[in-house]
Design brief:
The protein has 337 residues and is an alpha/beta fold. It has a single domain, classed as Rossmann fold, CATH 3.40.50.970. 34% of the residues lie in helices and 17% in strands. It is built from 12 helices and 12 strands. It has an 8-stranded mixed β-sheet, with helices on both faces. Strands 5-6 form a two-stranded antiparallel sheet. Strands 11-12 form a two-stranded antiparallel ribbon. Helix 4 packs parallel to helix 6. The protein binds thiamine diphosphate and iron/sulfur cluster. Iron/sulfur cluster (SF4) binds next to helix 9.
Length: 337
């Protein structure tokens, strides 16, 4: 395990040509993951179609994410990317692990490999939920990263099973209606219940914790799953440069608390007290994104963010959902198995 500073100073894995929005949290996550996995061990990525995937495939720079300006001859340094369909990144990562283990058993592969699956929450929690849960259930020795921007971003910002209540998306429009009415899937609990060896909910906004979690995910027994809250500039509708601030606010207000858990050891909720009055107000988080503009508004004179007239009850329901979410995370942290 290397220090945080040492990891942060490693070379960037982005080459010219990535089409991710500038400041996209998916790009910051990939940047960190690329650096952590630059550890001398061959890395194989299985990436499902998502913003992060299509942006590294845009013509004419069809691989805009890799190490060095040209593919490296150094076996342990270069990495492989299996670009695959929307829903299958965990299954292909698992299959790759099986092949690598067989080759190692036969003596044909003499150096270890580390395998990472990456996909969006649309791919992982809708059409791909089966592959996600079965790969975890089979205890495949892979790290699964799910970039949770709460929408199907690259196909037009449609609702996903991770969308926050009341969010305005292209398929839950807040055009005279309250927006999304489905509470999100409890994917953290699902991953634990399916048998994961490690589960975390962390974004690079918690820099050291994120890097440590990725490092740890490469070591633990069984499948490690890291859900990365990924504020989406275009889908959540906020200004460039606010991504990290919004990710920190989301964690601190209790919308997606920073959480790490290991089977047999239990877990921790960080930076997000159980008591609501010790956390920043949910209005601050909602007011930072135009996907909630139908729910809250900022008073021009006082700067105070509060419910729009007629939306007071919706806001209270959302506040209760956040509190239940935080309480659930604390309960999950207490579980050992
Ligand atoms: C079977 C199938 N259905 C639909 C698509 C089209 N498609 C590609 S990516 C995508 C949405 C991806 O959303 P998500 O996984 O959340 O990633 P994001 O774009 O938000 O990063 C869809 C619907 C597809 N590639 N395959
Ligand atoms: S649409 Fe959202 S997730 Fe996709 S690249 Fe832009 S900011 Fe990132």
């Amino acid at each position: 395990m290397s220090g945080y500073k040492e990891t942060a100073l490693k070379e960037s894995c982005f080459r010219p040509g990535s089409t991710l929005c500038p400041g996209c949290m998916e790009s910051v996550a990939f940047q960190n993951i690329g650096r952590v996995t630059d550890n001398g061990i061959k890395t194989i990525f299985s990436i499902g179609t998502s913003c992060a995937e299509v942006s590294t495939l845009a013509f004419p720079n069809v691989v805009a994410w890799g190490r060095g300006d040209v593919p490296s001859d150094d076996y342990g340094k270069s990495f492989a990317i299996i670009h695959n369909v929307f829903e299958s990144a965990p299954t292909l990562a698992e299959a790759t692990r099986d092949v690598a283990d067989q080759l190692t058993h036969l003596g044909a592969l003499q150096r270890p490999v580390q395998i990472i699956s990456a996909s969006g929450d649309g791919g992982a929690f809708s059409i791909g939920l089966r592959t996600l849960l079965h790969t975890i259930h089979r205890r495949a020795r892979v790290t699964i990263v799910v970039l949770v921007n709460e929408i199907f971003a690259n196909t037009g910002f449609q609702y996903s099973p991770a969308t926050m209540p009341y969010a305005d998306t292209s398929t839950t429009p807040a055009d005279g209606t309250p927006g999304n009415l489905n509470p999100p899937l409890d994917y953290i609990h699902l991953a634990m219940a399916a048998g994961a060896g490690m589960v975390a909910q962390l974004s690079p906004a918690h820099g050291k914790m994120f890097v440590k979690a990725i490092e740890r995910s490469l070591e633990v027994e069984g499948t490690a799953v890291i859900f990365v809250p990924a504020p989406c500039i275009s889908g959540w509708k906020f200004e460039d440069g606010q991504t990290v601030e919004i990710a920190q606010m989301g964690a601190r207000t209790g919308v997606f608390p920073a959480f790490t858990w290991e089977r047999g050891k239990g877990g921790t909720v960080k930076d997000c007290p159980l008591a609501a009055d010790q956390r920043p107000s949910i209005e601050e988080f909602l007011g930072s994104q135009r996907r909630f503009a139908h729910l809250v508004a900022k008073d021009r004179e006082t700067g105070r963010i509060s419910a729009r007239p007629g939306r007071e009850e919706d806001l209270e329901r959302l506040r209760s959902w956040v509190q239940e979410n935080v309480e659930r995370m604390y309960r999950l942290a207490e579980m050992k198995q």
